[in-house]
Specification:
With about 325 residues, this protein is of the alpha/beta class. It is built from twelve helices and nine strands. The chain folds into two domains: about 210 residues, Spore Coat Polysaccharide Biosynthesis Protein SpsA, Chain A; about 110 residues, no CATH class.
């Protein structure tokens, strides 16, 4: 039986054997009340789970720690669902398998939550970039969630990073598990919080955050990779839209949210048609299925599929100019 603690820390890892030890040990070094710490591997093909097992096995300290793994790869949303079911805390602190939490992170998130009387449903913080070399980069401020209202979120989504978040079990119970295929939970959790108990931001960097990971398709550098990545992103964004619309219905503001998401949904539906087309002829036919979208944009996306290697070369060139 899991040890019941007020706060649970959930480490989600997948194929991160080279970084996950540091991430896990940074959580066990938290200087705060005793925690429930779950080190979870999403069926990695590398040694990630073995590392987590070793970290949990040798730990001696006040926190209740265990390593576990999924029998098959679930993806981020379903992985969260599983861990929320298996954990016991009322405040759930999230951590990535390639990030580092400062020793004061949980204590400061908990103090900020307690200062609201437990009202806030999301607690975030600033972060410091963790470079590929392992060196620290710039300090990055996220938006102040205490100032974000529903109308503000509808006008402009706040800048937030899910790797800095802690959220309540209460808000998850209200809206239920994430839908199948959800990958980007950051804005979903922000929306859930602002239409519930609200959110707050600790104005300090409490995480060393490693950017990139699965979003850096360009490392593969070829046309087939670009096409494949376009399909992956399309499915993830459609899942995010579906989740937000479902949550908005529960919150009683579906029409407002649907109006804001309508343009994004139309773009992703058009891309979905290109992704699922089985021939170039079918893709040319798809060009006429979304006449309200700018023609130049539709043609550009179409050409990504018709001439993928050329499109990938252009993408690499733009990324190189940006890096320079």
């Amino acid at each position: 039986m899991p040890t019941s603690r007020r706060i649970s820390v959930l480490l989600l890892a997948y194929n991160q054997a080279s970084t996950v030890r540091g991430a896990a040990e940074s959580l066990l070094a938290q200087a705060c009340e005793p925690l429930e710490v779950i080190l979870s591997d999403d069926a990695s093909s590398d040694e990630t789970y073995a590392v987590l097992e070793d970290v949990a096995r040798v730990y001696r300290g006040p926190h209740a720690v265990r390593a576990r793994r999924n029998a098959s790869n679930l993806g981020i949303g379903a992985h969260y669902n599983r861990l929320i079911t298996e954990s016991t805390g009322e405040l759930l602190v999230t951590a990535g398998g390639d990030d580092l939490s400062l020793p004061s992170r949980v204590a400061k998130l908990a103090a900020a939550w307690d200062a609201t009387g437990g009202r806030a449903d999301l607690v975030a913080s600033h972060f410091i970039d963790l470079l590929p070399s392992g060196e620290l980069g710039k300090r990055v401020a996220t938006d102040d969630l205490a100032e974000v209202t529903l109308q503000g979120w509808l006008a402009r989504r706040p800048y937030i990073v899910g790797a800095t978040h802690a959220f309540t079990r209460r808000v998850m119970s209200r809206f239920g598990p994430f839908i199948e295929g959800l990958w980007y939970e950051d804005q979903v959790m922000t929306f859930r919080a602002i239409v519930s108990g609200g959110g707050i931001t600790v104005p300090e960097p409490l995480v060393h955050y490693r950017r990139g990971g699965s979003s850096q398709w360009a490392h593969a550098g070829c046309g087939s990779s670009l096409v494949r990545w376009t399909g992956v992103q399309n499915r993830r964004l459609l899942a995010e839209i579906a989740q937000l619309e479902r949550d908005a219905e529960i919150a009683g503001c579906r029409d407002e949210v649907h109006r804001v998401l309508a343009g994004m949904l139309q773009r992703e539906r058009f891309l979905e048609a290109l992704v699922n087309a089985e021939s170039t002829r079918e893709r040319w036919r798809a060009l006429g299925t979304a006449p309200t979208l700018p023609l130049g944009w539709r043609v550009g996306k179409l050409l990504r599929f018709v001439f993928p290697d050329y499109a990938a070369a252009l993408k690499r060139r733009r990324l190189k100019r940006k890096a320079d």
